[in-house]
Amino acid sequence: MLKWLHSKKSWRWGEMAVKLDGKKLATKVKQDLEQKVSNLKQKGITPKLVVILVGSDEASQVYVRNKHRVAQQIGIETQDIRLPENTAEIELLQLISKLNADDTVHGILVQLPLPKQIDAEQITDAIAPAKDVDGFHPQNVGHLFMNDPRSLPCTPAGILRFFQEYHLPLAGKHAVIVGRSNIVGRPMAALLLNHDATVTITHSKTKNLRQLTRQADILIVAIGKADFITGADVKPGAVVIDVGMNRNAAGKLVGDVAQSSVDQVAGFLTPVPGGVGPMTIAMLMEQTVKFAERSVNCGRKNVSNS
Ligand SMILES: Nc1nc(=O)c2c([nH]1)NC[C@@H]1CN(c3ccc(C(=O)N[C@@H](CCC(=O)O)C(=O)O)cc3)C=[N+]21
């Protein structure tokens, strides 16, 4: 297989894809953040992230635990609010309203999915845009699409960081995204467009999806189906980002990409686990610190919502 190795600017034959190591890059991001947090603490500010988990979804509990562990490593204060499965929407809205008004809180995250009696859109809309560390508020989504981002969704932000870290060019490249979720596909498209890529979004109704993926210089797969993309769907040398988080029959975490087959064709590939996941959490921390820094610059009261 034909490979292009950016660091040596040369073509290589018969090699496996270069692994984009999310664990390693996340560690680097965290080290930079430790310094920023200690600077903030000297100014009397401790960045604080509140994570709200409604119900007892098992996967969510694992993610929330990971977030707290990472925050602790960096020196970010976290508050864990757990509400019962049968929590009413109004109760959650009241809690958010209280946290919006609390100057010691810099970031608010409501873990998704939410139980069905709660309208997730109402909740997203209620979080103050200036504390919306997930970048899900329509105002932040709008800023992102207008190429003036204020808060970036963590998974797309983490993916962008791989391109920057490994010096993978985006301008003029054809990026194909598989999946159109509000959390990954759509904001990813906007972010790549902001960096001058030519973007195609594909989804369940797309005709000849695999013909499109084969043309991708950059292929981002976030569709939630194990082994959805194989080596035959990938252009030789492409950068392939696997956003999938599926549990297989053996309970093992697997992505949306058939890793061993794509490894033979792609130039660069993110593993699962150890790829996009750790970067998502690192970006959540980075955004929390950024919001805390912004609160210093704005004065601690009446932090602007935009
Ligand atoms: N409001 C909200 N914001 C989110 O950012 C959000 C959410 N809700 N709901 C669920 C998804 C999923 N998500 C992950 C974060 C880290 C890993 C992660 O660290 N994964 C590790 C492995 C974890 C394991 O072994 O289970 C890895 O890929 O290496 C995974 C998934 C954030 N999400």
UniProtKB/TrEMBL annotation:
Sorted alphabetically, which Pfam families does this protein's record hold? THF_DHG_CYH, THF_DHG_CYH_C
EC number in record? 1.5.1.5, 3.5.4.9
Q: Which GO terms describe its biological process?
A: L-histidine biosynthetic process; methionine biosynthetic process; purine nucleotide biosynthetic process; tetrahydrofolate interconversion
Superkingdom per UniProt? Bacteria
User: Residues that bind NADP(+), according to the entry?
Assistant: G179, R180, S181
Which parts of the sequence belong to the Tetrahydrofolate dehydrogenase/cyclohydrolase NAD(P)-binding domain?
153-295
Q: Does the keyword NADP apply?
A: yes
Gene Ontology CC: cytosol
Tetrahydrofolate dehydrogenase/cyclohydrolase catalytic domain mapped to chain residues: 20-134
What GO molecular function terms would the record report? methenyltetrahydrofolate cyclohydrolase activity; methylenetetrahydrofolate dehydrogenase (NADP+) activity
PROSITE patterns noted in UniProt = THF_DHG_CYH_1 (PS00766), THF_DHG_CYH_2 (PS00767)
What function is annotated for this protein? Catalyzes the oxidation of 5,10-methylenetetrahydrofolate to 5,10-methenyltetrahydrofolate and then the hydrolysis of 5,10-methenyltetrahydrofolate to 10-formyltetrahydrofolate.
Q: How does it assemble?
A: Homodimer.
| HAMAP family, per the entry | THF_DHG_CYH (MF_01576)
> Would you identify the family this protein belongs to, as annotated?
Belongs to the tetrahydrofolate dehydrogenase/cyclohydrolase family.
UniProt name for this protein: Bifunctional protein FolD
| Native species | Liquorilactobacillus satsumensis DSM 16230 = JCM 12392
Task: Give the gene symbol.
Answer: folD
